[in-house]
Structures are given as structure tokens and as C-alpha cells.
Amino acid sequence: MKTLHIETLDLNPVRMGWDIPPHINQTVKGTPLSIAGQTFDRGIWMNAPCSIPLHLDGNATTLRSGFGHEDLVQSGNYPAPRLNFQIEVDGDLAFESGWVASGDSARQLEVDLKGASSLILHIETENGQVGNAQGNWIAPDIEYKGEPPTLDLEDLSEEETAPPSEGYTAFHPGQRWYDTDEIPIQAHGAGLIEVDGTYYLYGEHKGGPTTFWPKSRVDVIGVGVYSSQDLMNWKNEGIVLPATPEDPESPLHPSNVLERPKVQYNANTGKYVMWVKSQDAHYSWGHAMVAQSDSPTGPFNIVSSERPWQDRTFGDFAFYQENGTGYLIIATGKVETTFVYRLSPDFLRIEEELSGAYPGEKREAPALFKREGLYYLITSGKSGWAPNPTRYATASSLEGPWEDQGLLFEGDEEHNSFRSQPTFALQVSKDLIYMGDRWDQRDLGDSRYIWLPMTLRNQKLSARWQNHWQLPQPKDVSDLSNTSDPISKIP
User: Fold this and answer.
1) Are residues 206 and 140 in the same domain?
2) Residue 172 lies in a domain
3) Cα–Cα distance for residue pair 476/79, rounded to 1 Å
4) Tens of pLDDT along 155-206?
5) Do 220 and 252 contact (CB within 8 A), yes or no?
6) For the domain that residue 14 is a member of, what is the CATH number?
7) CB atoms within 10 A of CB 229
8) Do 253 and 393 fall within a single domain?
9) Do 237 and 321 share a structural domain?
10) 317 and 275 Cβ atoms separated by less than 8 Å
11) Do the beta carbons of residue 144 and residue 91 sit within 8 Å?
12) Which end of the chain, N or C, is surrounded by fewer C-beta atoms within 10 Å?
């Protein structure tokens, strides 16, 4: 008889609630595993909900493990929901802990595996919450004969396509998107403008290694820009706001964080103005970095980097202009309101607060557009890197009031916006496109792009999943069932 320590397997490909890999024999902070004040040398720290699937091939006999709610977080901005530990053997539930709360003592389990072909270790969260839902499998061992159990990732794989030899003819949400040089596009948290028939896509270049402490991040590389005439085939125009490794005091030093760049052209100055969310590695700054350029392809030069209004933290934001006037829509922490501000004539600073949407609610990732005299504000909830249901609000004026209209996505059975978070709302003639990110906290540079058509009927905004789609979109959702590309299963 032999013993397999499950934590000796390569668990990096396993997906979790915040999409970071399991941590072996330590927490994400590098501290020892702990449950109710008791520390453990060996085990697996996971951010629930999560599953570890194993292929046994009939060679295993017994699973033994401890389990419990990690002590890492007792309080904070996000709740620590109760956890339910489950063991599934050949599709049948072989063990269920019931709800385990933070502070409960560690417990032990033993499950018979004789003759079993498969084993899945589940940790689920109460009411589907993620928050600070951190659980431990303590010293999980499998006794076996013959060949050892292996990690079974068949159900965790996603469909992939190679870069098309003659260019894209459709959007493929969730699949790796390549530029015209057949290199994966690096434009995360993106914004987009159109100049004389050419689209320019600005986003975070996250093509470096992902680290997990103090926060999940990639060393600053800079803001990348891509150009396109059809929104599907993108040419890399380079880094328009690059990192400055030689200057440790610069917000663009690699040790910091750069997120969600957005650009607008200012007709008053003839400049392209970029706003960027800027943080240190601990996310303590809450700064807005403002830069401008004479060209949409840069280079951009920093004008300022600070908290731009009443010392409020600068969170996720949208940058919008109408009739030559610029506006920012900023999700502000602590105050927990999504504020609308009017900018100065040169777009370089905030001049006036106009309104607040979702007062007291934890919202982020705003995207804004206007159609037929009504403003539509799309936002996500706050749950770290984990996706959550996307909602939208409307107002007849940027001065409010804003009225919540409910969920954006139809068919979103997992209530996670098809595993995405909004970054931009794009209007192309009469068509509307939801632009979102599917964040991969294990490898932020491999986070995928979720672009989906939105439908607006009788001032009701909605979107549904499609594996691939083209512009122009059908006039309404009911027409989709009659096309050659029907609504498809979410990957």
C-alpha cells in the first residue's frame, strides 16, 4: 500500500472562486495554514468555491483528510461566508460536512474509495458568495495500489482556436484573441475610441508574471494600443504609456499597478487625453493618473497623478464625452457610491460633482452610453477578482436621479455575468457591444475578452451568451433562434 499526498500534485491549473491557484502548505500571504487557532504544516489552502478533480482508475482504497475554515480573514470589506466541504466519488456524494463557519475547529474525514474511478473534493460557499471564503484541506492523503491518482482537468479545459490565417470574421468570446502578428492581444480593462474610421483599443499590458502578494498583480509594463477597421482584427501599435523602471518614484514604476486606461479626444486642445487608475502594490493610493498626447498612438505624457476630487479614492471608472464636454463616472470606495463628475474644458481635472448612482452600494467597473435621450450605466458588484451579476441603471440626465433597472444578462444561471466584468460599452451605428474581461488571477496576462451584443427594446437593455457572433447583430433577441449562430452553451 502507498500513500499520495494530494498537495504534491500540480494544482496550479485548478480554478477557484477568485481564480488564483491553490496554495500548498501556506496561505496566499505565505503564513501557515490555521483553523481556529491551530496551525498545520501540510495541506491545501483554497479560496472557495472550488473543486479538485482526481482520476483514480480503481487503484485507490481510502481518502483521509482534515478540513476547516481558514483563520486568514476574520473581518474586512467582504463577508466570510460559511463553507460546505463535499466529497464526490464516481458522481455520488460520499461526504458532506454541512456549513462550517470561521472559528470552528478542524475536523477529520475518511472516505472509502475501493474500486472508484473518480474523486472530486468540493468546497462550496453559502448563498454562492465568494468574499473571504477561504478553506483548508489539511494533510489530505489517498492510499492506493498500482498507479497513483492523477489530476483530471478534462472538465476544466476551455475550447481554443488558433489564430486565423486570413483574419477573424466573427467574435469568439472567451477564446484567446490574437493580433495581426498572431500574438495574444494585451489590452485588459480596455477602452476604445474611433478616429476617422479607425478604432483604437487601449488596455493594460499584463504580459509578465503574475504574483499574488500583497495583491494579485503584474509588474507595470504600460498601456498598449491596437488599431482596427472592423473591431475584430487588431494591429499592435505598441506601448503608448510605458513603465519607467529607472524612476522608483514614478507611478509608472514596475512595482506599482496600472488599471483600466480610457482615452477621449479633446477638440478644445487637439490632445488625446488618457485617464488611468493608478495604485501601489498594496492598493493604498487610489490615484488617477492623467496623460495626454498629440496622437492616438502616443506617446502619452503624464500630466498628474493624485486623488482628483475631495481626497476620494479613484476606483474603477468610465470616461465619457458629449457635445465636447468630458465626464468621469467613478466607483468610489468607503463612500461606496458611483459618482458622475464634469471635467474641465481640457479634460485634465474634475470641476463639478453632478450626481451619484447606487448610493451606499459596493459597485465598480462602470460603463456608460446614451441612446435616444436616456443614459445607461452598467456596473458590476465588488467581489475582488471573482465575477458577479452585472446590473444597469438609467437616468434622463447625468445629474440624475439614477434608477436601477436590474440584471443585464439573460441566461446567466451562475449569476457571474458569464464569468466576466464590464469594462466598456461600445456603440457601432445602431449596434451595442458589451466589452468585458474574464479575469484569470492565476495568469492575469491570459485573461480573456468577453465581447457580446446587447439588445435594447423599449428601453430594456439585455445581453445573452453566444459562442461566436458577427456585426450587424440581429434586431432583437427572438431573431437569434433563426440565425446560423444560435445562442450557445457558455464555455
Assistant:
1) no
2) no
3) 39
4) 444 456 678 888 999 999 999 999 999 999 999 999 999 999 999 999 999 9
5) yes
6) 2.60.120.1060
7) 11
8) yes
9) yes
10) yes
11) no
12) N
Give the C-alpha separation, 41 to 24, whole Å. 10
pLDDT tens string 451-464: 999 999 999 999 99
**pLDDT tens column, 207-246:** 999 887 777 899 999 999 999 999 999 999 999 999 999 9
Torsion of CA 150, 151, 157, 161, to 10 degrees: -50
Q: Which domain holds residue 70?
A: 2-156
Give the C-alpha separation, 293 to 266, whole Å: 10
Pull the grid cell for residue 384. 475582488
Cα–Cα dist 60/54, whole Å: 11
Q: Are residues 428 and 279 in the same domain?
A: yes
Beta-bridge partners for 394 = 376, 403
Count how many Cα atoms sit within 13 Å of the Cα of residue 8 in the half-sphere of its side chain: 9
Same domain, 106 and 231: no
Residues 148 and 198 in one domain: no
The answer to whether residues 325 and 352 touch, using CB atoms and an 8 Å cutoff, is no
Element of type H or E holding 338: strand 337-343
pLDDT above 90 for 309:
yes
Pair 37, 106: CB distance under 8 Å: no
> DSSP secondary structure string, 230-283?
SSSS-EEEEEEEE--TT-TTSTTSTTSEEEEEEEEEETTTTEEEEEEEEE-TTS
Same domain, residue pair 350 and 465? yes
How many domains in the chain? 2
pLDDT tens, residue by residue, 415-457:
999 999 999 999 998 999 999 999 987 789 999 999 999 999 9
Q: Express as a percent the part of the chain with pLDDT over 90.
A: 77
